[in-house]
Structures are given as C-alpha cells and as structure tokens.
User: Fold this.
Amino acid sequence: MKSTRTYPFYFKSTVILFGLILFSCVLYFLKGIFTPLAFGILLAILLNPVVSWMEDKKCPKPLAILLTLILAIVIAAGLCYLFYTQFLSFSSQLPAFKKKGAELFAQFQQFLSSEAGITTARQSYYIDQGKQALQSWAGSSLGTVATTMGTLFILPVYAFLFLYYKNLLVNFMYEIFLEQNSEDVSAVLTQTKKAVQSYMIGLLLEAVIVACLNASALLILGVKYAILLGAMGAVLNILPFIGGILAIIPPLLIATITKNGLHTQVGIIITYMVIQFIDNHFLVPYIVSAKVKINALISIIIVLMGGAVWGVAGMFLSIPFIGVLKIIFDRVPDLKPWGKLLGDQVPAGHKGQMWNKITRKVIS
Assistant:
C-alpha cells in the first residue's frame, strides 16, 4: 500500500520561492545564451506557417526554410534601408540643429542664472557630472550594441535549426509526458503556437498603424522628418508602458530646434496622447492581446521583472512568455488558480463573500 506524504504550506512555499530565485539567477547569468534562443523560437514560430505552406507545395524542407528566411531578411533589409535614407536626410541638417541647440541651451542657462538663482559655475558642475554619466552609459551601450549585432547574426541560424528540427522537438514534448496526457500536450502546443503567432503578427500590425498615425500627425503639424520620427516612435512603442513616453521625446526635440514658439510642441503632446489612447484601448486589446489575455497588474510586474533580468529584450519577451505560462497553467488542474490570477477576467465577488452569505443563511 502506497502512502502519500503531505508537506506543510510553509515548506512548499519555501521550496517554490527558492526554485524561482534559482531560475531567475540562471536566466540572468546566462542571458547572453538564452536571449537569442528566445528570439529564435519566436521567429521560428512566426515563420512556421510560411514554411508549412511551401512544404505542402512539395518544396523540400531545408529549401523551404531557407527561402522563408531569405524573404524575411529581404523585408527587414528593405525597412532598414528606408530608415537609413531618412536618417541620411536628417544627418545632413545636424550642423544647423547643433547651432540652434547651442543657442537654446545658452538661453536656458541664462534663465536658470537670472530666475532660478543657479550660478554659471554650479551649472558647469552639473554639466560635467552629466557628461561623466553619459560617457559611462555610452561605454555600457557599446557592449549592448555589440551583443545585439551578434544576436542579429545568429538569430537566422537558430530559427533555421528550430524549424528544421521541429518534429524532433515536438515528439520530445509528447514523450516526456504520460500517454494519457497526450491530448493536453497537443492542446498546449497548439494554443501556444497560435498565441505567439497572433501576438507577433498583432505587434507588427500595431507598429505599422502607430507609425502611420504618428507620421500623419507630424506631417499635419509641419514637423520635419515626420516619417522617420513616426517610425521611430512606433518601434519605441513596442516596449510596454515606457515606450509611449520615450516615443514623444524625439519629435519634441526636433520641433523645439526647428520651430519658434511652443504651439507645435503642444500639438505633438496632444496628438500623441490621442494616439496612445487609441493604441491602448483599441489596437492592443483587439489586435495584439487577442490571444494573450494577461491582466494589467501582472503585465506591469512581469515587464519590470523581465527588464531587470534581460534588459530591453526581457521587457519585450516577458508578455509572450507569461502568455505561454498561462496556457500551461490553464491545462494543469493544480495550477489553474495561477492561470486565473494571470488572466484578465475579474470576478464580481470573491469566494469569501459567497461563503459568508451561505453561513448567514444557515445561521438565520
């Protein structure tokens, strides 16, 4: 006769907490390995329908994967070329921007000296401190840029290998679980694939719409380099929560340098607030998060945790990661409460209220 041993809550909670800390440490110290792997998995899942379509047309699997990757690289290169041409036009005006910026900065220094009582020497001290911090940040950023470039080169290789060994990986997922759980495994894999594909395609569509709205608004306001700034804002907007704030800074700076007065800056702030409202209340719920339904509280926490562990890449990967976890939690009976905690469905009341009502009826 088999005996099932139960452990007290404090013991189980300690083990779970220790496991989470250990898992986070592994992710942090091996982020250089796991970050490109995670992006490779996302890219492979995104390109999988195209590869499957080519295979259905009797195209050999390696050739189908290679042609799909080449098509994706050509599209990405075309977008980069568009950014590059816009940036060349912008860089030709840098001397004029630098001169106007120096004039505005001198006026700002005079304002601080006369109105705020901050002496020129004190301002110079603050500027030197800022330069030192900027140099330190630039040094660390060079390492980040080098890592990013390395990731971009290895990303197609990972995507190719994941797509080529797809059947091997899927069979492994089936074989490590019991045969009676094969239906649940199939459901989790199918839902995960659909959720990630829906999220990535929705994210790309959202970026295109936001870029068009940004560029149109800046063109109407007469801001120079509206297409470049609109696209830049859409890319920054991909970062959850902080992206919308960062996206408004470049057009404000360009408007301040190229235009007199503040009416253009006020117009930019108003239009970007309207675009953010449209994005947060229509584009994200109905296009991006249609399959990844995570409540706002968990989204904020997981994005901050992802940023702490993997930086900007972690902030981007955190939402699909937690979406996959929710799909798994919803399928495992013991983990269903955690799946409900991550979800966006808010009950009208909690079970304690229901229990109190039943108790009062019994007593009365």
